[in-house]
Amino acid sequence: MRKFISYQESISKLKNISLPNLGFEKIPLQNSLDRVLFEDIIAKSNSPEFPTSALDGFAISAKDQQFEFIEIEEFDNPAGNLNQIPTLKPRKAIKTFTGSVMPKNSDTLIPIENVEVVGNKLYIKERVSIGFGVRPVGEIYKKNDVIISKNSKIGYAEIGVMASLNIVSPKVFIKPKVAILSTGSELLEIGEERTSSTQILSSNNYTLESLIIQNGAIPIQLGTVSDDRKKILEALNNAILSKAEIIVTTGGVSVGDYDFIDEVIKKLDFEIIVHGVKIKPGQHILIATHKKTSQILIALPGFAYSSTVTAILYVLPLIRKMLGLNFENEIIEAFLAEKFYKKSKKTEFTAGNLYSKDGKNFFDFQGKIVGTSAILTNMLNSANLLMTSETDGDLEKGTKVNILKIC
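The chain above was modelled as a monomer; its predicted structure follows.
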């Protein structure tokens, strides 16, 4: 007799599974977008290293603004002039450009629009405070500062900062590999022609592949296999040989006469950790680990909506953890914009629309079809998931609820 456990208990068991340490690889900076940093990025020097002009103008000593005029030196102070930093003399001004190192003895950069130049004389039309227009040493960061933390996902800003630090090849987490296998005699590969009205095109493996790529892992497509013990055994053995850290199957985990996943994995030396969770959709989900290779197998239901939701709940957290990211799915609070009718005494995940209005989050079900767990179209248009507990009943409009955020 299968024992169904709570959603919270299943997630606890999933979190306690020992995961392989994939280590890091060094990749070219320009290829590192969306990868996850394996180590802190630490500044090797101050930035800027010297007091630097923040705009075009004249380097002066602030106290000299009291005089009727200041004499302008005959030479300029261009940017990049590190080998010949000029020294400012009393009651003198040096024309200085954006990015230039400030002259020695200067403490202020007065903008061009604040002055009038007559010959070699500088007349102050509008005074500025001491230090104006000057970027101090270490304004951006100081030596030994952690600029970007380990486990950060690399975006455009991180790439720009690392380029400024002359980091050619950052260390990033190696991507985990996820093998995907869809089971079911009714399935056809896309491109195949139907010979029977009972046949359906396999979409689960492509949905899962996209989810896996989007979340930073490498998919290994193993295609589809019919509901045949021998063929499923062979396909799962190939999945083991693929050396994927995670193996994901869809279909064959329920209690029908042709649901063979449970039976087959026992022959392949897997230990079942979870089989049956009080959730909707996906109550027959199975999670197991291989006793020798430590590979994790997650057998998902065959219906498209069910397999997608359970992949979000159980596969993506493992991928994130292997990449050094947060294991838990993101949960945010929102207010129901319409009444919700609970369908079961399980933890339910219901697709809907999350939006903000007047500084508050709201959730509704506009455009979503009420029906079976086969309706993948409910995940279109950046859907998120209303999460209701085993003890919840129908919920009135305005109720504060938890939303599992996907987008």
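Helices lie at 7-15, 156-164, 204-214, 229-241, 261-267, 304-322.
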